[in-house]
Every structure is written in C-alpha cells, then in structure tokens.
Amino acid sequence: MSRFLDMGGYAAFVWPAYAVTFAIVFLNIIWARRALARSRAEARRRLAMRAESS
Amino acid sequence: MTWTWFHRLGSPPYVYALAARLTPWFAWPAALLIAGGLWGGLVLAPPDYQQGDGFRIVYVHAPSAWMSLMVYMTMAIAAAIALIWRIKVGHAVAAACAPIGASFTFAALVTGALWGEPMWGTYWEWDPRLTSMLILLFLYLGYMGLRAGLEDTQRADRASALLAVAGSVNVPIIHYSVTWWNSLHQAPSVMRFGKPTMALSMLVPLLMMLAGFTLYFVALLLVRLRGEVLSRERAASWIPEVLKT
C-alpha cells in the first residue's frame, strides 16, 4: 500500500495531478446543477410576477 | 431521409425534455468507465520503462486536454450552426460548453506542469504546445467575459458566437504544434493516424478514461443546456409544465 502511495518517488506530482483533475470533475457537477437550479428559480419568479400583474 | 428529428432539435420544449431524459444514460456509463480507467491506470498498468510511475499522470492529463479541445469544437460548431441557421438552441449549447471547457483547459495546464517538472525539469516553458493551450484558456475566459458583459442575451449570443468561431483556428494549431515546431511536448501516441504507440495494458485504461470523460461531458452539457434553454424562453407556454417536476 505505501509503495502504491509512493508512486515510485513521483507521489508529489502524480497525486496532486489526480486531485486537481477530480476536484474539477466534481466541481463541474456542482456548478452545472447550480446553474440549472438558478435558471429554474428565475423562471419561477418570472411566472409569479406575470401572474401578479395580470 | 426525413429531417423532422433535426427540426425537433430546434424546439426548446422538446430539447428540455430530451436532455432531462438522456442525462442518466450518459452519467452512469461515464462513472463506470472512469472508475474502471482509474483502476486500470493506477493499479493494473505496469510502470513505464523510462518514466516509472510518473507516466500515470497521463490518465488525468490526456482526458483533460482532450476535453479542452473537444468541448471547444462542440462550442464552435454549435455557435456556427446558431449563426448560420438562426437556431437558438445552438447558442444555448455553446454557452453551456464554455465553463466546462475552461475548467478542463485549466486542469490540462496544471497536470501538464506537474508532469513537466519531473520529466523536463520545468513546470512551465513558453513552448508552442503550452503557449497555444494557454491561449485556449484565454479564449474560453474571453468568451465567458463577453457573455457576462452583455446584458441582452441576443447580443451576447451573437457576439460570443463570432468569437467562438473565430477562435477555432487555435484548435488545429494546438493539435499540430508538436509536429510543426520543435516542442518539449511529446508527439501524439493515441490521437494519430495508424496504430497507437503504447502497450495495450497502458492504452486500454487511457481509452476508458477518454470515453468516460466524453460521456461525462455530454451529461454535464445536458444539465447546463436545460438551464440555458429555460433562461432564453421568457414567456413560453411550456415553462410552467416543466417547472412542476
């Protein structure tokens, strides 16, 4: 296990590369969901405003 | 051949419903492929005879770099379709691509730097490949900045689409930079004509990662596309219906 974590002496380069990439993979999932939720909330607000004014 | 399927792709309610339905069909296979690729790349593949275990950075670097270019091509083609045929959904696709592409261009640059230091002895060099990738990141950021700066969605769509199409000249420059100029960066070993120059036990996990990231991109795009379509349709009658679920 510790040999695996050591990555043949390249641990200081291999693991940060994986960490950065997968941080971006997970952040993109959160960002995409948040963008959709924001658009849906905005559309709801517009509908409510229109219902009030008519 | 009938073109009805193509015309339906221009219809926002159809696109919204289709995107929602398709997302899991891309997301789950993507997760499986990436998990398999990680296992194969980190555990099963043998160390490289020159780079030892350092070569394993390829399993995150190459998919990130592939994403940065593939997402840009998707964005530029969608923008061109939207400009030429005035299909609004094209603008929505292009706008949805930009933040995904920008973040993976950043990942490609960072993982490349982390690979460059042990192998080339430097994190950064003003090398043709590295410089053209940095320009790609600026193109994405310029695209997003331009959109954010223009209040009116229609004007933002047109202006940013022109930028996306014009910027696509950078894509072949990035791809061929390692052949046209003397570059520190190695020549392609997978994305080339003829056979890849890699052992199968190293290649298969890489192909799984590339396929997995591609499906993951489609899933992300489908989620973002729904938001973009929704914000472009101010007063359409189908909106109350889709907001219920």
Describe this structure in words.
The complex is a heterodimer of chains A (54) and B (245). Chain A has one domain. By secondary structure, chain A is mainly α. In chain A, 89% of the residues lie in helices and 0% in strands. Chain B is mainly α and 245 residues long. Chain B has one domain (56-243). The longest helix of chain B has 33 residues, at 12-44. The model of chain B has no long low-confidence stretch (mean pLDDT 92).
In oligomeric terms, what are we looking at?
heterodimer
Strand content bin of chain B: under 5%
Q: What is the general shape of chain B?
A: globular
**Helix/strand/pairing class of chain A, anyone?**
mainly alpha
Strand elements of chain B, count: 0
Q: How far do the termini of chain B sit from each other? A: 35 Å
Query: From N to C, what is the helix and strand string of chain B?
Result: HHHHHHHHH
Terminal Cα span of chain A: 68 Å
Biggest pleated-sheet summary of chain B? none
Which class do the helix and strand fractions of chain B yield?
Answer: mainly alpha
Count of structural domains of chain B: 1
β-sheet strand percentage of chain A? under 5%
Low-confidence spans of chain B: none
- Strand runs of chain A, count: 0
Mean pLDDT of chain A: 92
In short:
The complex is a heterodimer of chains A (54) and B (245). Chain A is mostly helical and 54 residues long.
Topology:
The complex is a heterodimer of chains A (54) and B (245).
Chain A: H1 2-6, H2 11-53
Chain B: H1 4-8, H2 12-44, H3 58-85, H4 88-120, H5 128-149, H6 153-167, H7 170-180, H8 200-232, H9 239-243
Characteristic terms for this protein:
heterodimer; A: 54 residues; mainly alpha; 2 helices; 89% helix; B: 245 residues; 76% helix; globular
